Amino acid sequence: MISSSPTSLEPRETRKKMRSLSVFASLAIFFAASTPALAQSPVWGQCGGIGWTGATTCASGSSCVASNAYYSQCIPGAAAPTTVPASTPASTGGGGSTPTGVPSGNLPPAGVLTQVTNFGTNPNNVGMFVYRPQTLASKPPLIVAIHFCTGSAQTYYSSTQYANLANQHGYIVIYPDSPRSGKCFDVNTPATLTHNGGGDSQGIASMIKFAVANYGVDPARVFVTGSSSGAMMTNVMAGSYPDLIAATSIYSGVPFGCFAGASDWNSQCAQGQLIKTAAQWGDQVRAAYPGYTGARPKMMIWHGTIDNTLLYPNYGEEIKEWTNVLGVSQTPTTTTQNNPSSGYTKTTYGNVVVGYSAANVGHTVPVHETIDLQWFGIA
Fold first, then answer.
1. What is its EC number (predicted)?
2. Most distant pair of Cα atoms in the chain: their distance
3. Helix and strand numbers, DSSP H then E, in the chain
């Protein structure tokens, strides 16, 4: 799932899981329920894909864009990402304000998803795509939003609301793009699980450092989020590069190091059968950056109780891991039913770990962008 090995080398059972993930990750992230057949699909509505029987034309101002074989969506404008080499000053494109102290030539065009290259050490050639809103806050925050297996930077950009909300709040979004054929991230190799060890995590760390150096990003307000493989990568970033990150929001992941090993798929972890003590999980995180004594990110964790791809026990193992790392009790400080909506249970552990258990929700917990922004201190 997450090494450089071709998808064709995965066990048949794993490929079936990933095909299922393709369907549910697209559908459930984009919508909480199916869209009825319409003469035209609305902006952000479904417009095609295997098994789709609804409208295949989009409302004015949007175009039908295929995310994968199972899902196509009406995207406003549907413009292809532009590419801006980091070594060449980016055009300011559609304009927009520049934060104080940042030369406008260093910024990507405003209002479009832009690929940036030559941004620093990047052993696995992870892609960097950036969304800059029309108006930036002074010393803007940064959100790194990481896609699921079979997804892409473009998919996560168009299927979540982080970019739209950036237009209201003035932050920058980076969407890493997996270089692998199955579009999963490297969350298992010793390189990615080690600070400055290489792997996908070092490439993403370079993106963060580049944004701080060139876009005027506030280094104290860098946040990481992701779904499925992107959630696992978020945990990896929190463990391997705690010095770069202030907070995370994790949708359907597994603990840091749970997939560790030579194989790109860890069935024991995925099935929720890799059980450790809180201290054992915590030691695994601490070993990723030996000698580090600085601040670590606060963690928000979401998981569905009927997840059949990365099973629900992983949620409890993540809570154990991060409460230990952050030095708080595994006993919840508060427990609130039906928060943020019916069927969700919110538990807090001090002010540094929050869990959301989603009853009768499968692998794809819908992204709650507004709650993420509140947790990040942006909204």
1. 3.1.1.-
2. 61
3. 9, 14
Q: Are β-strands 142-146 and 247-251 bridged in parallel, bridged antiparallel, or unpaired?
A: unpaired
Q: In whole angstroms, what is the distance from residue 67 CA to residue 156 CA?
A: 9
Choices 3.40.1350.10, 3.40.1170.60, 3.40.50.1820, 3.30.420.40: CATH for 80-376: 3.40.50.1820
Average pLDDT, the chain: 85
345 SS3 class: strand
Which residue in 228, 232, 250 sits closest to 240, CA to CA?
Answer: 232
As a whole number of angstroms, the distance between CA 286 and CA 236 comes to: 12
Say which amino acid occupies 299: M
Which residue among 228, 240, 249, 357 is the active-site one?
Answer: 228
Indicate the range of 19-33, 46-60, 147-161, 250-264 predicted with least confidence. Answer: 19-33
Burial 169-206 (b: 16+ CB within 10 A, else e): bbbbbbbbbbbbebbbbbbbbebbbbbebbbbbbbbbb
Sign of CA dihedral 271, 274, 278, 282: negative
The band of 361, judged by pLDDT with boundaries at 50, 70 and 90, is very high
Q: Which of 254, 252, 121, 106 is nearest to 172 (CA)?
A: 106
Give φ, ψ of 289 to 5 degrees.
-140, 75
pLDDT confidence of residue 85 = 54
Which residues of the chain form CATH 3.40.50.1820?
A: 80-376
- The DSSP output letter for 242 is G
Tokens encoding 116: 């940036």
Map residue 128 onto helix, strand or coil. Answer: strand
C-alpha 109/C-alpha 42 separation (Å) is 27
Give tens-digit pLDDT for 307-347.
999 999 999 999 999 999 999 999 999 999 999 999 999 99
DSSP codes joined into one string, 306-320: T-TTTTTHHHHHHHH
228 is known as an active-site residue:
yes
Q: Is the peptide bond before 340 cis (omega within 30 degrees of 0)?
A: yes
Q: 148 near 71, Cβ under 8 Å? A: no
CA–CA separation, 305 and 362 (whole Å): 7
